[in-house]
Amino acid sequence: MPRVTVTVRDNGGRTATATVDYTVGQPVLGGYYLSGGADPTADMAGGNFRSLTQYRSFADGYIFPGYNRPWLVTLGRAGIKMNMVLELKHYGAPNTGPQTFTVDGVTYTVPAPAMTIQQRPGTTWPRAYGYSQVLAGQCDGLFARALSQYRTLGFGVNIQLASELDTDHEFGTTEAGVSYSWASSDARAVQAMTYIVNWFKARSLPAGTTFSVGVGGFDRACYQRTHPEALMAKLDFLQWNVYATSATHTALARFRRTKDWAVADLGPVALSRPVLIAEWGVRVAEVPNQAGWIATVPAAVAALNAERGPRIARTNYFNSGWGTLSPKSVGLAALKAAYAVRPYV
Amino acid sequence: MAAPTVTAALNATVFNPGETMTLMVTYGDPDTRPVTVTIVVTDAQGNRSAPVDVVAVIDPLTLTVSDDSGRTWSKVSDNGAVAAYRAVA
């Protein structure tokens, strides 16, 4: 920690001294995600990319590094900070039935996922392992399988539990035939997330392991409900996602929306944690000058980090869905240019 | 004779690389007393000008600022009691 020393001296040689210490933070890590969890190595080449988001379902038998994803090990060993989003949402398995498998000599049977989430009217509701199933210990085998694979990676990662709890709960959830409102789904998720974090932390973890809980950050009440101090004390990051989906959306306004709610609503433990933006993106339909918008992000992040409140530590561009870079070469060039200036260097 | 006094404060405790840091130094000496010199001009006829006061600082204090990280702190202002310095994080 650098120290400034100030000395004042009078004519007789008498002196007084004052010291003050300060810290210069690390640069914000510029990051990426490529659609479909595809190999981003070629896109990242020549850019100051230092962070990556990945998504896996606990249902998937190949979580670390993932099925046919040796490049994740290469990037991680090269120092790219991984944000591994591990979801109770069910995908990556052959079917939605129960699973029986053996981990390190122990055989587990995990029941079929009993919950539906993202219950948007007129859509097929995705299945997920239920919060009651987690609390009953029925999903411990899934966690054991993930941990066993994680220990072979060779580096620590951030484990983000759930992608966006607000998106998952917005239209309520149903588990084993019982319907839960958005608010009660949030409360149940906090219990289940606490259980999972405790489960992992009770076991030997690779050095550098950190935890966070995934929330899109578009609903203030949900954000507050899902960030109680007791849970935040077990977590290392705040997290939210940032999208520009209107011509009126500025980078500063979009990155700051959830931060302002957090600063107003959350406790001191939560606010002591740095922020991991697992996804940010610009929807080209409403913001045709995608590259121009991207160019305004460094100044916006720097401005927010100069204010009080939690510091944004990583920002991972989501080159998929709403954030799809189009045309890709132009968007990627803009992203590389943005990550080449303060606060990313 | 008493020793001088000094306090120092930064505008933040954590900075981002490249950010401007501002250091405020408040300093003084209990021995320092204001000295006012009053000047009156008188001519041969005995006409006297209005008096003019000049405040003098006798034996001003010397401030030095050092940083063990090697950063250079530049003085931005100094009124004899409060001085501001700046450096780049």
TrEMBL record, chain A:
Record's protein name: Uncharacterized protein
Origin species: Micromonospora endolithica
Domain of life of the native organism: Bacteria
From TrEMBL, chain B:
Name by which UniProt lists this protein: Uncharacterized protein
Top-rank taxon, per record: Bacteria
Organism, as annotated: Micromonospora endolithica
